[in-house]
């Protein structure tokens, strides 16, 4: 069967079932090394504060947010914005690490993984797409059980407060594809 997004989850589960059956899943030393480097890179990126001073530029990751929120984000002085709590910082780290783990499973399950963190520009708006899997744009998201409901139930289009679909549409436009998932 040809690998595609429709069978990705099943292929990952089949791979992991191999472990359940007591068999090796074929992780090479290079796989271990690459995974460790990607986890270290994710940790380093998370632990390195980004200077947001004077950076009110529109980016692919915020194009779907309400205009009023974008305006306030652009016009609120950095020293007056609410600081992130430690628990929120941990959630962000958790999301970064889970993305690396998921993409590791994608690769191990035999799906084609490409264009990781590729920089794209559409109408002067820059962004970095997470990757392509089997030639389709994919934007990896982590969410609480409650927040995940809109993905599971297919109601994201009616309740997309974070602009995920607009972000994905921008990546799709840049890549000339139309079947991506968030």
How many strands appear in the DSSP assignment?
5
> Which H/E pattern describes the elements?
HHHHEEEEEHH
Proportion in β-strands:
5-15%
Q: What best-fitting shape do the alpha-carbon axes yield? A: globular
Strand order of the largest sheet: 1-4-5
Q: How many alpha or pi helices?
A: 6
What structural class do you assign from the helix and strand content?
A: mainly alpha
Mean pLDDT: 89
Distance between the termini: 24 Å
Low-confidence stretches: none
Percent of residues in helices comes to: 40-55%
Radius of gyration: 18 Å
Domain tally: 1
Major sheet: 3 strands, antiparallel
Task: Explain how this protein is built.
With 182 residues, this protein is mainly α. The protein has one domain (5-175). The protein is 46% helix and 10% strand. The chain is built from 6 helices and 5 strands, in the order H-H-H-H-E-E-E-E-E-H-H. It has helices at residues 8-20, 29-47, 67-75, 86-108, 145-152, 164-175, and strands spanning 113-114, 118-122, 125-129, 131-133, 136-138. Strands 1-4-5 form a 3-stranded antiparallel sheet. The longest helix has 23 residues, at 86-108. The chain is globular and about 55 Å long. The mean pLDDT is 89.
């Amino acid at each position: 069967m040809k690998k595609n997004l429709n069978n990705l989850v099943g292929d990952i589960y089949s791979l992991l079932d191999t472990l359940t059956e007591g068999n090796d899943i074929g992780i090479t030393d290079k796989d271990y090394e690459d995974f460790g480097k990607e986890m270290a890179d994710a940790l380093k990126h998370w632990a390195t504060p980004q200077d947001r001073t004077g950076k009110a530029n529109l980016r692919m990751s915020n194009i779907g947010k309400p205009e009023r929120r974008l305006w306030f984000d652009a016009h609120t002085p950095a020293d007056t914005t609410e600081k992130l709590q430690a628990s929120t910082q941990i959630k962000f780290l958790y999301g970064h690490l889970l993305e690396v783990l998921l993409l590791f499973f994608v690769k191990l399950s035999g799906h084609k993984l490409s264009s990781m963190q590729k920089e794209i520009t559409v109408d002067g708006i820059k962004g970095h797409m997470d990757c392509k899997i089997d030639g389709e744009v994919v934007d990896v998201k982590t969410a609480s059980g409650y927040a995940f409901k809109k993905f599971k139930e297919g109601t994201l289009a009616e309740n997309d407060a974070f602009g995920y679909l607009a972000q994905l549409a921008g990546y799709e436009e840049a890549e000339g594809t139309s079947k991506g998932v968030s």
